[in-house]
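ARCHIVE CARD
SHELF: 3
SLOT: left
DATA:
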Amino acid sequence: MTTRSEASLAPEWIGGRHVSGRSKSRTQLAIFLSMGVFMSVVAELYRRVRQRAALYQQGLSLRESETRFSTVFHANPIGMSITRLADGQYLDVNRSYLSLFGHTREEVLRHTSLQLQTWATPEDRERLIRTLREQGSARNKESRYRRKSGAAGARRWG
């Protein structure tokens, strides 16, 4: 009967080679370490694939959200515009806004609200901007506006 230490030193075929004793232990250690490195590489690749999949999903969600917003914005029967707070430069307007003020899209998108004189007075815009900065929104506030034709009107915010 062989002892355990003798069995570990017995010759064996590993990777198509006949090995025995200490070289067997070294080969097993090398295989074990190689498997560890291999598993680390696989884990890193898996992490990167999951990260890219998450970014791709976020991009899809963002595009879907932008599409929904754009659809609601442009189909809305209430005249709406998106402007820069700093200078009133128009970034986008819907058809209802163009109809209300009498401008073409090209006229509006090249100018600021002050250039087009859509506010009855510049102070009306300043008052709205002050309210937005202080309260974060303009609920139940009224302001006066002017159409391209010169006709005046009033609007309620929020």
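SLOT: right
DATA:
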Amino acid sequence: MPAKTSLIGLKFGRLNVLETAPSVRFPCGTVRTRSLCVCDCGAKLVAMNYALKSGHTKSCGCLQREKAAASNFKHGYARQAGKGKTYFTWRNMIERCNPNGHRMDSKHYSGRGITVCARWRSFENFLADMGEAPKGHTLGRKDNNGNYEPGNCEWQTQAEQTRNTRRNHIVTVDGITGCLTDVAHHFGFTCVQICNRLRRGWDMQKAFHTPLLSHRPARSKASISAAASSSQCPGPLLLRGEPPPGPGG
């Protein structure tokens, strides 16, 4: 039988050892020493000494319940109607900025050196700073080359996100600077109309200052009928070697 080692007065995790408890012998012949402990929450229990010293037993069970409750908050929050979007937005932000991740879009984030600040590694902190994601909004950065951190992020609409992409073209016409779509709308054009002109080799001034051609007026039925009656009807189709028809047809 191994020598008994007293743990009275020691603390392991949340457990304070009060006194030595009777040892227990297992059917295989192994004898384990035990101690009577009181948890910080006030509950008492008898624990194996080896489990106390190895760190396997740290509380009466309250510590594990608290960890489970915290985990259920995070994942339960993701399942709540109307709130899951905020949680999944945070999780996607963390994953795409993970340099060791396997997401296909990580090259546009972690691959460019974009990171998530230490505070936002916690979902609770992210939620406290950003609040709930409004309907129709997604997480966007004011500086597209900046990191995910308070002061550089906001909930943006799809139109705002589109204007803030690296692929967007910034132009200046008559002292007005902005993305191509906004400047085109300022001069009364659509982005497609301006792009088509630029593709044809027009310079910026010509593209933004040349009025659109007015549509041709619709032709009346009378004019269409007159044009049809004045047109010559072609003769019959003749095959090669076939003589033309006579007067009788």
